[in-house]
């Protein structure tokens, strides 16, 4: 009997524990009845003596927990939501401000994150198991280098790729691709020449990336062994150029000297191995000499190597990155040993052998812009994060203010027996409803912002392509941001509001002169926090704006206006070096004859074209230190180059038309070169020896030109020397020219004439780019410009939100003090004194916020140091302006409610009290 | 508060209809409802306490039943037991549900799906 009682008690205890799975309100209301009914049910089952029936009773209880309890929870949430929507609808002004700031906050975060995700983090689209891919070349470098290098390799040669492909056992496949996206002049049978972007890739490229063709077939391993005149088109190009016509297979096209047959089309979404770039077509690597006539990048003659390929491997399962790196380096080193075997100088050999491969994860693919973007995007992500914090502080403040208005209502509910937990839950549900709504709208905002952001990215990188993708990571991010926001702005007010004592709050209703001291303190602290968070945002916007200004006003060393740059690629059109030289002279003559042209010349690397060259040199009277790299940068220029550029000569003369083959070999150096090698000596008449592969050529210095900035805006001008194109040795390559045209007025009419003239000379001559120097400079600073613009927008938003926050707090606190102010006025205080009093009381808060913000700005300054130019991150002037703007705005935000208070009618106000 | 139209609550969940039937002839407490439903259906329908009180909560909100202020049975073993009674609105809703089911049966018979009575 006793054991039966114990058992009964235990059963009820277990059931009561199960009851905790139900919402508290439901449990409070029906828990006792339920456990009572359960006990009776169990007792009945026991009386029948049927064990099965007892088990059924327990099973019923368990099923209730699984089925009924969740339904009850949903019911409570739905009720809270209905209540939340009703209160929102009752004060639509509040809801609109709250939701708008949230939507903007979450939307901006999501958009920047989506871009960050796409640029910095996302795996290559359309590639099978990208996590297995590794890169043996430098993912952040695109381009190529002919000659020698030391240290970690950026790119590999075709021969090195072949060795790795055939001998490495760590990979299930090894592929190579042209590291830079090429612009080709191509011609489809029966059509005119047109431009297309493409890449040379190895035979197993598509198989190793795991891409099945949409139409036809792709290349195979055999295409690495013999010339294979084929091309595979991308889905986009097939859509755009051929209107998705399936008959495209079998059509032929000409690139350089190659006649290729289209054999396949890749599936939609596949872009290849480089993030953010969409090639139009792919051609087998073996076709390189035919595609680029006059250049053979497949074979190397010691000691120079043609390094231009990205190499990817697909790791076999259970092979570590370290093992793959060790094996790849062993193969690579063996290749170097045999390649440089003929070099006799032991020191030179050691230098040349000092090269290695770094194997790294390749899932994200290559991208030479990712590094740049990731810094600005990470900074922007931090900025919008701050913005969301400010928006949350605003919402918390608004909720606090509204909560104070609802105190009587909540107090009534508390005194009627509602639990504090229930009220917190109710308030949090409201915050969550706000946040979820904000999050959903934020996704839409993000979609549109994303478009604008991608346009900004494209403006600074013409090859960049990216689409908006709602991938799980991004949705997860938005979800997390939304929840975090709800918690941030919901918890404090919920905690504060429900801390009320029902009795006091009810009494308070009739004595509005008593301000909710605690609430006011929190409200003021939140306003101060907003102010503090706004300082770094505004300061950063200022610093970035000044960086853009500085970059746009860098001293180039020559006038930027009225300078036209035209890049012609004769190599692609089939010209060899000698033919190119003739062509360029002829084009130059044509240009000089045009009306509106004051002067013109050309050079190999050009002005801000992105390419540069260097060679090993010896300088007369200068001894190299043992450990120094003996390279110096050079450019090969046409006659009257410096006078056309407008760079003044310090001494000596320009390169002239008379500096032709057969005449004494001459060169011009820049000031930096003179300072570096001829400190306190007169360089004119001295000699430079250029060591190119096996040949040594001696040039006499005939001129020193002032430093002219032609490579980068940010770095100092490097020592550089200039040779005459006509005096280039036979091996010297001249397959492209960057024409430099100084016009008397606008560049546009001259550009049109230049295009017509070039067309007349040779219709298939590809003009790679043609723009004024000012346009080129604008595109060079486009990213900084947009970053600064975005930072300015975010800064302005932060300023507005902080102003709204402080305004709200002040309006509320002044409204609570109406009685006090009315008495002061009745006793004779003037309006001005009332305003002064309120301003005085607030100035401390504003100053404290600004001080905290200054500290924050200093702490955050190193994050954007790398983005700045010509200004230090701690620049006191910029900070002072930011603080001044904030201070002025805050004074206005306080002044407006203060003035309203000072204009009240004391008699009416006191009567109302 | 305006009473909603009885039709707006149709079709009634099975548990709700059973509870209405149980409290139709006399006021009952929760366990008594469970017993009544079980007895009436020869044990085929068994309401668990969770289902029962979840339904009761909803029926109270919808105004189908009401809770009695005092226990109608002073001799009850526990005065904390709560008793429920069907409201006028509850009766109208139950009647509407019966009509709905009748119409359904008529349809089934008319098409030959079910045999005629």
Identify the notable features of this structure and list them briefly:
heterodimer; A: 913 residues; alpha+beta; six-stranded mixed β-barrel; six-stranded mixed barrel; 26 helices; B: 117 residues; mainly alpha; Arc Repressor Mutant, subunit A; 4 helices; 3 strands; globular
What would you say about this model in short?
The complex is a heterodimer of chains A (913) and B (117). By secondary structure, chain A is an alpha+beta fold.
Report on the structure:
The complex is a heterodimer of chains A (913) and B (117). With 913 residues, chain A is an alpha+beta fold. Chain A has 4 domains: 76 residues, no CATH class; 232 residues, no CATH class; 314 residues, no CATH class; 194 residues, no CATH class. Chain A has 26 helices and 26 strands. In chain A, the strands form 6 sheets. Chain A has a 6-stranded mixed beta barrel with strand order 5-6-11-8-10-9. Chain A has a 6-stranded mixed β-barrel with strand order 18-19-24-21-23-22. In chain A, helix 3 crosses helix 13. Chain A is globular and about 115 Å long. In chain A, 42% of the residues are buried. Chain B is mainly alpha-helical and 117 residues long. Chain B has a domain of 76 residues: Orthogonal Bundle (Arc Repressor Mutant, subunit A). Helix content of chain B is 49%, strand content 8%. Chain B has 4 helices and 3 strands. In chain B, strands 1-3-2 form a 3-stranded antiparallel β-sheet. The longest helix of chain B is centred in the C-terminal third of the chain and has 23 residues. Chain B is globular. The termini of chain B are far apart. The mean pLDDT of chain B is 88. The chains are: A alpha+beta (913), B mainly alpha (117). At the A-B interface, helix 2 and helix 3 of A face helix 2 and helix 3 of B.
